[in-house]
Fold this sequence. Notes:
Residues 225-253 are annotated as: Disordered. The chain has 2 domains: 27-213, Growth Hormone, Chain: A (Up-down Bundle); 305-504, MFS general substrate transporter like domains (Growth Hormone, Chain: A), CATH 1.20.1250.20. 79% of the residues lie in helices and 0% in strands. The protein has 23 helices and no strands. Residues 1-21, 231-257 and 503-515 have low confidence and may be disordered.
Amino acid sequence: MYASREDIGYDFGEDSKVGSKPVKPNPNIDGGWAWTIVLSSFLVHILIMGSQMALGILNMEWLEEFNQSRGLTAWVSSLSMGITLIVGPFIGLFISMCGCRTTAIIGGILNALGWILSAYASNVHYLFLTFGVTAGIGSGMVYLPAVVMVGQYFQKRRALAQGLSTTGTGFGAFLMTALLKYLCTEFGWRNAMFIQGAVSLNLCVCGALMRPLSPKDLNEKCMVRSDSEENRAKAPSNSTETIKSNGVLTEEPEKKEEAANEEVHGSVQHIEIGGKSGSGRSMYGLRILKTVSQLTVTVRKGFALWYSSYFGAASLFTNRVFVAFIIWALFAYSSFVIPFIHLPEIVKQYNLSRQDNVFPLTSIIAIVHIFGKVILGIISDLPCISTWNVFLMANFTLVTCILTLPLMQTYVGLAVVCALIGFSSGYFSLMPVVTEDLVGTKHLANAYGIIICANGISALFGPPFAGWIYDITQKYDFSFYIAGLLYMVGIIFLLIQPCIQKKQPREKSTEEAQV
């Protein structure tokens, strides 16, 4: 087990230089504007994730309107949910180039456009493009910045902040379900989608609140985090050896790039000063040239950071623990989504519809899920508790519940298991924290983009796979068993890789001693 990057011996280098002078922290880190960022992220989760969990209302309307099969119609919702997460790595490129604020505002406009265009759908295939793809990409462009910004603004209470912001998913599931039910009843599903598109424009407001931290503040935060992690570990770090073997983003290329950028700006400014005696038209042209050069430099720098994270010497994939984390994500999310999709049918098979109508099992999961995120976040922020250990324990509880659920045939038994599923799945709020501990703040956007992409693949294919198993066996039992076993494989990868990572430096030192 480990509690920080130093424990696993992996670092990307941005935290390697710690100044001897005391660092005066930015008052907005862990306080001030940071809580506005939490509010912005909370609203994003309500408008995006909450809306997606309420798509069952629109799915029934589409079935009646277009008279298509349930499988084909369900792909509209699956595409929207899957693409929101799958586009994560590419959204990381936008964040590297334009920043979180600009990316989120563009995504809010695109998401609203997808909802509005879907109101004019003539068939299901039209919805694939407008709602599944357009609104899905827009959702992804807002969702990832909302998570990344919370990670940037918090140091001491990261887990709690992420937990509070992601509780918007549970609140949104209730609010958006009630809103869409009311709108569909009063105005019809087409006008409901049009109105929902107008409501989604509030995502642009949420994006505008994502005020970026200066590079100086980010560096100070990294330095403070390095100090706190060293004090907590109280052991010599093996990061130097790992850096040499795995490769990092060194500062020399960045300095060379900054020098080149200064040359470009300096030459443009020199031309501008020399051309003051010229006409106003030439001055206007020089200003345009300066703006274009600055934009080009920004794009080049953002693309270089994105490219190096995925394919360069400092590729995220050289971190074995992070690769294991990706494998885990490929199996984990479907285990949470499958109960939401198939529980109503299980309740119907067990003749428990009357009890479920009074208090639906999916509502139990959603309610307890809210408390799980907050409580697990508070526990993880305790100085004596490892976030990684809390994360693993929650995963073990969830996979046990998934494997146990088919054995429960009474409403009380199912309700207890669903409550445990809701609470243990609160570890979703810890995923950005664990990712940041693995790769650092600088690479959080690209790394978390990969993780949610893996989650998107899991969400896209998990429920249809469970339905296919049911078509073969005429039982949902095997769907949960197979999903649980695959989930367990992902957890085993998380357990094995840190042990391998720790053993490598020891083996190396033993060999050197023998020589």
